[in-house]
Structure formats: structure tokens, C-alpha cells
Amino acid sequence: MKNVIRDKNIVLGVCGGIAAYKSIELLRLLVKQEANVQVIMTRKACEFVGPLTFETLSGQPVCISLFGDDGDASIKHIDWAKEADAVVIAPATANILGKIANGIADDALCTFILAVTSPVIMCPSMNTHMYENRAVQRNIDILEADGKHIIVPGEGELACGISGAGRLPEPEFILEYLISILSTKDFTGKKVLVTAGPTRECIDPVRYISNYSSGKMGYAVARAAAKRGAEVTLVSGPTNRCVPQGVTCINIESALEMSTAVFDAMDNSDVIIKVAAVADYRPKKQADQKIKKSGDELVLHLQKNIDILKELGGRKKNQVLVGFAAETQDLKNNAQKKLTEKNLDIIVGNIVGTPTSGFGTDTNKVTLFFKDGTSESIPEMDKEEVANILLDRILMVK
Ligand SMILES: Cc1cc2nc3c(=O)[nH]c(=O)nc-3n(C[C@H](O)[C@H](O)[C@H](O)COP(=O)(O)O)c2cc1C
Question: For the chain, which residues make up each domain, given as ranges?
Fold first, then answer.
């Protein structure tokens, strides 16, 4: 998938708040994504961080004044507003929220905002009492009604010593939000159910059977679908991954729990993508107490778990059903067999166990098998790029 940020003109507005230092990291992340970033700082922002850092990282002069005393007398607020693909104000002070909500244009940043027509993301950050103040909340309501995107601040210990709402979200979170705003929304109106991660099949209170699935591929699919406008439900086995923005996550442990969550959600889904590595078997008996070490051998009796994908294939109505086949050999035959037996629309086959493809890796190399008998081999790429190609193909089903 295209990097939606690359070559985009992003204007970063920085205000005079204690979190202004975090916008340096945000700028660095944007530049890393190859965005063309222009920075507008309020005069008060310059009390907290120096323009030189922004100038050096962005490779462009920073705009501070409307009147060219920063070296360029051109009407940047109009030029930049015409060219901007998106604007992020981070941190947004109580002051700037009030000014923009009321159409005030007495400095470079708020004058620029009046002239801009592209999406504006504002990240309020301030002391909790300031944030909860009725006047600030009223201004936020106005800004939202005017179509500005407001990122709700996080809660926690603030620089002023008190604990509560008002923290600037981490720069990575703001970047994700921006990417989501700029992404094509071709899944709007679609409900997508994704499963991810491994399952754990309990042996006794301290042991379980599981597999090496990290959840990276499933979370990448959920994240990509959400960015493209889908309403995403993610049923996830135990992983250490963060739930992507805008995704509803149901955490499960065992295959049985996963089957309940998936069957509950299936009728309310347009697309079902089963990425999870579900255990085929579970211990027949789960010991109530820890099994003690005894003889040289311990025999565990396993019983078959329900085949969730096959059951979905049998029950499906109009949903597009996609499965993943992680194989260590004979990918084509195994994947095509599953596709037919489980009544799938697409199966994503991948050979697991290589350093750059399969469980735990950031990249994947897959082949897509379609129900009309055709297939498409995708070169090795980032898991989110794989996810986006899969979503492109799902839109072409039927
Ligand atoms: C040490 C210090 C920290 C401040 N931190 C914040 C803050 O986090 N958020 C905020 O809205 N205002 C904060 N202020 C107040 C703003 O700097 C002040 O309202 C200023 O007028 C904002 O100007 P600007 O919106 O043009 O940048 C702080 C002030 C000081 C002295």
C-alpha cells in the first residue's frame, strides 16, 4: 500500500504549552514518513521550544509572524493554506482553541487556520481544570461542530503536578490519527470482523498449549480496515499488541471462547477475516490444581476443537469469508483444499517459519487463492501492506 503521508503537505502548528517538546518528535515521525512539513509556531510556543529545532528537522523556515519579521514577507498563511493536505495543531492551548472557535485572526497560526480548507486536527493539552473549564469545553464543542478533528487528551500525571485529563497523546498516536484521516475511505459502511493472535488451551492453572502467533498480521488487517473507514471488531487471543484506533476489541483466551465471540458477531458482519492461529486440539481434562512432577513421562489426552472457519463457511450468508493458512509445506495444495472445504472466498497462504515471513515477523510473503481457482503471489512486504492488498481484493469479491 501507498504510504498516505509521503509527499503530502502537512502543516504542524505548535502552541505555547508545556507539551510543545513532544511536537518535535511528531515532526520527526512525519519527516520519517517523507511528508513535506511546514511549521507554524505561536510566539508563546517559542518560549518553550526553539524554532531552530523545527527548522532543522523540517528543512524549511518556521513561520512565526504574519509580517515577515522571520525573514520572509510573503503571505505564507494563504500560500500554505492553499497547499496543505492536512494540519495538525499539537499541542493546542486553551488560548488557540478559543481563538479558532471564534474566528480570531491575530497571529500567524489562527489566521492561517481561517484560510485553510483541508482537514484540521487539534490536540488540546493543558492542566485538567483548564481542560474541564466550561469555556474550553464550549470552544471544543464549537470546533467539532465546525468540522475540526479534536483528539481527546489522555489522562495521567501532568507537568503541573496534578493527575487527570489534559495530556498530549503520544506523537505515534497523533500520526496514526492523521494517517487515518488521509486514508481512502473505501470500507465506509462495512462491518469487518477480524480474529488475531494465538489461543491458549489450558492444561492446569499454570500451563497451557499455544502457538507462536504474535497477532501482528491480524492487528495489521484490523488497523488497515479501520483506517479505510470500516467498523471493525477484533476478536483477539493473548498478544502484547495495542488495539488500533477506532477498533472494538474482544479479548479471548481459548478456541472455545473465540468461537463464541465470532459466532455472536458473524451475523452483524459484512466481511470476516480469520487471521487467528486457533488451536486444533485442547486438553481433554483441565486439572483444577497444578499437575505435580511424577514419572518420566506424562501423557496428555487432547480433544478436537471446533473448526471455526469451517463452521463459518457452513453458516455464511452474504458475508465475504477470508481465511489464513499457515503452512510449513505444500502451500498450494493445502490452501486450495481449505478454500474449497471451508467455503471461503479467499484464502491467504503463507509459509511460516522463515526469518522474514510468518509468525512474529513484521513482513510477510503470501499467496492469495481465490474461489474461482486463480491465485496471486504477493512479494514480501510489510504486514500492513499485505493487509491493504487483501482488503483491495476483498472489495473485488462478487
Ligand atoms: C510554564 C507554562 C506552561 C503552560 N502550559 C500550558 C499548557 O500546557 N496548555 C495551555 O493551554 N496553556 C499553557 N500555558 C499558558 C499559555 O502559554 C498561554 O495561555 C499562552 O497565552 C498561550 O499562547 P498561544 O496559544 O499563542 O501559544 C502555560 C504557561 C506557562 C507559563
Answer: 9-182, 191-286+293-396
